[in-house]
Every structure is written in structure tokens, then in C-alpha cells.
User: What shape does this take?
Amino acid sequence: EPYVEARDIYSYGRQNWFPYVGEEHRAVRERVAVFDQSSFGKFRIIGLDAEKALSRICANNVAKPPGALTYTQLLNSKGGIESDLTVARVAEDEFYLVSGTGFRTHDSAWIRSQFLPAEGSLPEEKVELQDITEEWATFSLMGPLAREVLSEITESDLDNENFPFGTCRTIEIVGQNVLALRVTYVGELGWELHMPCDSAETVYDALMETGKNSGIANAGYRAIESLRLEKGYRAWGEDITPDTTPFEAGLGWAVKLKSGTEFIGHGALLTQQKQPLKKRLACFTIDDPDIVLLGRETIFRNGEIVGWLTSGGWGYTVNKNIGYGYVRNPDGVDNEYLKTGTYELEIATARYACNLQIGPIYDPKMERVHK
Assistant: This one.
């Protein structure tokens, strides 16, 4: 159906939106779709000390040349994840930060609180955060045909060699300057397109008109949730929080411990690195489509409670329920401990056998993202 009333009909089973979200999901996996993600928090970090300040605040290495794009967490002194976001370096003294929907106030306040004030003979850092969330719009163009659609409305070279994953640049789309970020939260080839709100309607219309021959579709946040669950991407506030560390969440690859640069949470992570992890995020799947995972379901290992799901949903491509949750053990949780257990999830007071999944279920080698 081309148009369906956007109305939720609540149910203890699959809700009325389930098949329509599935169509959006498949459009992203098989063709191309546009997400309006203008609700992202969007900040400019400017000043002579911008790199110095962000290098201290960010757990990953953001001291890269202009045009670089970095996924990073912002940690507290205990190594807990206060935020995760994307950092685009657009100039020597300017960075563009993108944080999750709903976290604008939290993230901007946290970043500002970490800027160093004047102390003794030391002047305050020359750095400023400008919140441009309301002034800028964001469209995410995602799917295997994303390059085909975008190349029709820009003269910029979008080939993988010239615009690889993890980079950003300003491109022109039908006369509008757009900051394009080669990044994804759905596990497909694509770009986040960031622009002043005055340009949004023109750019959106161009994308939809040009994408007609490619079967372009609009898609929403419920599709994003399904897509990211298949790819194993974490969600802040659910899978990662101030009480979980990058090592526990399987995000140690995004921490610059070997760089020689200290950052907030550095000492706590060095200490944790020397000890067994007492909890680890794991993925669980159930094939039965009549079961509905929502998150917060209890995890049993060998008949004993070891945790609960932090998030859950249906994967339309892999055709199964997907849940993520922390497995806990005071004596440590390593791969052997995870793999040797027999697992169940308690759903609506009944227990169901489930399978443990190590690594992403969908495209574990990142071939579609980097194509």
C-alpha cells in the first residue's frame, strides 16, 4: 500500500506497523531509502584548542586531518560511556559532532563541563561549543543504490577510492552546499547529508525525484532499530550507558589506549584491562516469529539468571528475533564462558531456548559498508 495511516494499534503480539516497517527495512537492504534524522544533536566545536580539548574528552583518536570522520565514546572517570557520537574534522580549528536523537542537552552539557577553565597562571582553553541542532537538518541516504542516486545530483566524485568510508567533505547538491559524512548506523553503503534547514526541502525533493528509478523509499526509526540490531550496532541509553565500559560493550577497538594520549577514563580502562571482565555484551537470537522481544527479558545461563536484555527486536533480513544483553559472572566472562553455556530468555513469564551469537549477524566483514 502506498500510504497507510500512521497509527499504532497496541497488542501483546506483533503490532500493526510490523509489516510496513519490514518494507522500509528491505528497501534499505535491497535498494535505497531516505531517513530524516534532523533530530540528531549537532554541534560545532571551534577554537585554537579544539583538537586538544576533544583529544582529552574523546576515547578514540580524533586528532586527524580535516576530512576525517571518527566514531568515539565520551567516558567518565570510571570508564563508563557518557555518550557515543561521530566527530567530523572540517578544519584545523573546527569539528562537527553528531550525537543521538534525544541526547542533545545531555551531550552538550557533558562536553562543556569538560572544557578547562582558567586555573592559576593557566588561561582557559580556547574552545567553544555551538549547538546548531535547530539550524541544521540531516537526511541519511542508505542502501546499495545510494551512490547511484547521489551521483545523479552532485558532480562530486563518490567513488570508494576518492570518498572512502570514515571520511567527510562538503559537496554541492542542486546548488546547495551539503556536508556529506560517509558513515552508517544501518550496515549499508550510504551518506549522512547535513545542511542548513533552508536547504532541506530542495535536497529532499532532489533525492526523491532522482531516486524514483531506483525504487527509493522513505524509512523511519523503527526500521533503523531493526537494521542496527542485525548489524550489532550499540544504542546509547540501552546497550551502552555510564555504567558500562567500552571493553564490556565490545567497543575496545574504538579506544586509543596505545596512542600515548591520556583521556578521561584512561586510568580506569588501564586497570580494567588487567582484570577479567565481570560482564560482557552478547547477542541472542530466537527463530520463532510468534515471540516478541522488546528488551529487559531475563537471561538464563545453565538455568541461572545472569542478566537481562538491554534491547530487542525483529531482524527482517535474518528472519529472527535479536536481543542484546550483558552476561554477568563475578569470576569473569570470557569467550569460553560465553560459548559453553546453554541459554534461555524469559518472555512473559515463560522461558524459551535461544542461541548465542558472537559478532554481527549481518555482514560481519563490513563488505557492504565499504563497497
In short: The CA atoms of residues 13 and 290 lie 7 Å apart.
